[in-house]
């Protein structure tokens, strides 16, 4: 939004959350449910993916500086939030809400709700959620990895784990919850440690 219509982060971030929330409600409300028979599994998968996400950087100093992770293709580590906004708790709270509530719904609807099914059979609505088809499973995981730029290797592992959860539970809600738990843990970690590079 900002490059085309410069607005303060205090306006842009809430506007993004509101627009995305309304869009999700309008187009996808019939696909979403709060019923989840796999709450504990989803919760612990979410925590495990968070651990996978931060472990390389915590265990191996300089890991993310390697050219395999920062290059002309994957990009470089740079927070999308301005220095000024990093000191603004309102912006940080709204950014966290987006990461914990909006992003898991949007991404799971796309990656595991649509793409994995579409790759398994192009009339995707006839393909049940959680259908395992190896090509669809691995292409989805690889593209999920590519979306995460310098974090592609942990993105690949996360994609595999979330795909597995979908196959195991056949529940979009279970995947959304796991993804939300991962992002909640990551938000707490980022704010507590100041490792803003995780917020690309």
What does this structure look like?
The chain has 200 residues and is mainly α. It is built from six helices and no strands. The protein is globular, with a radius of gyration of 17 Å. The relative contact order is 0.18. The model has no long low-confidence stretch (mean pLDDT 92).
A few lines on this structure:
The protein is mainly alpha-helical. The chain has 6 helices and no strands.
Number of helices: 6
Sketch the major β-sheet. Answer: none
Strand percentage? under 5%
Report the uncertain regions. Answer: none
Walk me through the topology.
Elements: H1 9-28, H2 39-59, H3 89-120, H4 134-147, H5 152-169, H6 172-193
Helix pairs in contact: 1-3, 2-5, 2-6, 3-4, 3-6, 4-5, 5-6
Kindly list the characteristics that best describe this protein:
mainly alpha; about 200 residues
């Amino acid at each position: 939004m900002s490059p085309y219509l410069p607005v303060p982060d205090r306006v842009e971030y809430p506007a993004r959350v509101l627009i995305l929330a309304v869009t999700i409600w309008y187009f996808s409300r019939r696909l979403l449910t709060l019923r989840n028979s796999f709450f504990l599994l989803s919760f612990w998968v979410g925590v495990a993916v968070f651990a996978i996400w931060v472990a390389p950087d915590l265990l191996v100093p300089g890991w993310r500086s390697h050219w395999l992770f920062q290059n002309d293709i994957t990009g470089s580590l740079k927070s999308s939030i301005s220095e000024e906004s990093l000191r603004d708790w309102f912006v940080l709270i709204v950014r966290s809400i987006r990461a914990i509530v909006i992003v898991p719904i949007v991404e799971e609807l796309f990656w595991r709700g649509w793409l994995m099914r579409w790759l398994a059979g192009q009339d995707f609505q006839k393909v049940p959620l959680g259908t395992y088809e190896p090509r669809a499973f691995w292409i989805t995981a690889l593209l999920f990895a590519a979306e995460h730029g310098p974090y592609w290797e942990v993105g690949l592992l996360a994609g595999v784990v979330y795909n597995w959860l979908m196959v195991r539970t056949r529940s979009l809600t279970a995947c959304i919850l796991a993804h939300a738990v991962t992002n909640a843990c990551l938000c707490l970690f980022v704010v507590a440690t100041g490792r803003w590079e995780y917020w690309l």
